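Troubleshooting: if your tokenizer reports a length mismatch, compare your output against this known-good record of 53 residues.
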Amino acid sequence: MLSRFAQTMTISAIRRSSIVSRQRLALAGGCLGAALLLAACGKSDAPAAPPGG
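Known-good structure output:
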């Protein structure tokens, strides 16, 4: 589900940024990927943490 959302957002970003330079597109892709990784890590770490820790 998350990967599908990421693909849709990436495709949308590419279409919108078709006029913009590739550097900006790469930067946006990197930021989006980092945000998704941070969100995924945060969600996966939450249940792994001991309760009341």
